[in-house]
Design brief:
Elements: H1 2-26, H2 35-52, H3 59-83
């Protein structure tokens, strides 16, 4: 149980931040207008990720899934920056 809780807390934070950064990155040129709503949305998104970790069978599965989700999201951010989008 503690492994799932730690996975949601430690890996959910960067995942929520990267998902919101990805959303802001792909918005049209007025993306800066959505920074405050994104900051307000951060905590509920992080909480949702923490709650969702209790749906996994084990802590190992939670760590692996959230780790892969973090890697994919950060790679998408990095790739979008590299493409100049």
């Amino acid at each position: 149980m503690i492994a799932r809780c730690l996975a949601g807390t430690l890996l959910g934070f960067p995942l929520a931040a990267a998902l919101l950064a990805l959303a802001l990155h792909w918005l049209p040129e007025h993306g800066a207008a959505y920074v405050v709503p994104a900051l307000i949305l951060f905590f509920p998104l992080w909480t949702a990720v923490m709650v969702a970790t209790y749906l996994f069978r084990s802590g190992t599965h939670a760590w692996l899934t959230l780790g892969v989700a973090n890697a994919v999201t950060f790679l998408a951010l990095w790739g979008g920056r590299g493409m100049g989008a």
